[in-house]
Description:
Blueprint: E1 14-18, H1 22-33, E2 37-42, E3 57-58, H2 69-72, H3 75-80, E4 86-88, H4 93-107, H5 110-135, E5 141-142, E6 146-150, H6 153-161, H7 163-169, E7 175-178, H8 179-185, E8 195-199, E9 203-205, H9 208-221, E10 225-228, E11 231-237, E12 240-245, E13 249-252, E14 254-257, H10 263-269, E15 277-287, E16 297-299, E17 304-309, E18 312-321, H11 330-344, E19 350-360, E20 367-371, E21 374-381, H12 387-403
Parallel strand pairs: 1-2, 1-14, 2-10, 4-18, 6-16, 14-21
Antiparallel strand pairs: 3-9, 5-9, 6-8, 7-8, 11-12, 12-13, 15-18, 15-19, 16-17, 17-18, 20-21
Helix pairs in contact: 1-9, 1-12, 5-9, 5-12, 6-7
This protein binds flavin-adenine dinucleotide (FAD).
Residues 18-24, 41-44, 49-51, 53-57, 59, 230-231, 258-260, 262, 281, 283, 316-317, 356, 358-359, 381, 383-389 line the site of flavin-adenine dinucleotide.
Amino acid sequence: MTSVAHDTTHEKTHVGIIGAGIVGLSCALWLLQAGYRVTVIDRGQPGEGTSFGNAGVLAGFARLPFTRFSMLSKIPRLLMDRDSPLSVAGHYVPDLMPYGWHYFRSCFNYKTMRSALTELQASAFDADQVLLNLTGGKHLVQSKGSLGLYADAGSIAQAKTGEMRERQQQGVNLEFLDALQVHDLEPGLAPFYAGGVYYPDTRFTVSPIELSRCYARYFEAQGGRIIRDKVNFIDVKDHGVAVQSSLQCEQFDQLVIAAGVASKPLLAQLGLSIPLVSERGYHLMIDAEGKQLSRPIAWLDKSVFISPMEGSIRMAGTAEFADENAMPNRGRVECMKRHAHTMLGDDLNIESTWVGSRPSTPDSLPVIGPLPGQPRITLAFGHGHLGLTLSAVTGKLVAETIQGTKPSVDLEAFSPLRFSQQRSVA
Ligand SMILES: Cc1cc2nc3c(=O)[nH]c(=O)nc-3n(C[C@H](O)[C@H](O)[C@H](O)COP(=O)(O)OP(=O)(O)OC[C@H]3O[C@@H](n4cnc5c(N)ncnc54)[C@H](O)[C@@H]3O)c2cc1C
């Protein structure tokens, strides 16, 4: 069993964390284990932000940034197609301008970004295992691989020589399957596919919310504190950081900002402008009675996943650039329902729908590490489509940053400085 020893060197240092999503909770566990006194502040219950609604996939195969010229060239066509995974809300266009500019600029750095993501992914599995062993959460994660399917043979042929070959070059273990082999693995699927790819090493959680709750329970049982309150203001002083929330003011020696998409306004108070956007995804919970599904399955043409989750099937996906508080878009939900029928057949009972905001950066990489010029503040947000997958390794890197040890992954590619010319924040 992998484990980390509980250290006591830092117990007088009080670390505050804003955000009890899967990223903030992972940071909290690593810091507690390193011996710090840790308090997490969240305006809601642990794990009930974006971390509540994801597809549950620990997607170690995801090593190619979405930010690339080949994706950029597809955007106009995707925006015209009502069944495509991509949409932009009119009200959100002004917010997207800085994001769009940095997306375009980042396309030139594709290979550097890919190396950085691959390096982060290489440490993700071990970091997960540490937290799952520590918290007793192993029963919430299954290792049955995952499938990525295409509806037509042309797309498979293209993937074989393109994206999938590139993944293999990044060290991803995958096998190509024809339609018969897919059927043998997942007989409950409707026959919408021509074949696809199998990732034997993928793991998934049967309950993203239970995973967050499991982390939060362990954290509190070991002496960590969780405060339910909304942070309004951060004041960095010489001797510490004051965090003003609706009901109280807390003083910390160190602060971690892990507030998902809401990290952007908190950082704006500190003088840092980050082109972080709200990339909304939806899920449908489908009654699984009479349906058989063993592992997460992506329909790659439509960018949706179906995952088995404790008695239900969750269909999750789409990328809708819209304000996090905007009303859910009925058109997106209807589009996902059509995909669900195509993948699982006509007789479906949809139990509920959900929408949440991925905290997305223009270069598809999270922001992890110190806030330049502010040694008391560490950043951990912007994980986009991979927040569950990269949460544990992010927590480990945050703990290493605060301890002042050399991070086990080079953090340069994850620095907020990549979006600005400024070298430090006043
Ligand atoms: C449909 C969908 C499917 C996805 N599928 C996957 C998947 O299969 N695998 C994967 O790896 N990732 C997936 N993701 C992405 C993943 O869910 C996110 O990247 C991840 O949940 C982000 O976690 P977080 O902790 O940064 O943010 P959150 O979970 O949003 O947590 C941030 C927390 O900060 C709190 N907060 C914000 N502002 C304040 C404030 N001012 N004061 C106090 N508290 C505050 C919020 O209440 C929230 O609890 C998916 C996302 C979506 C939408």
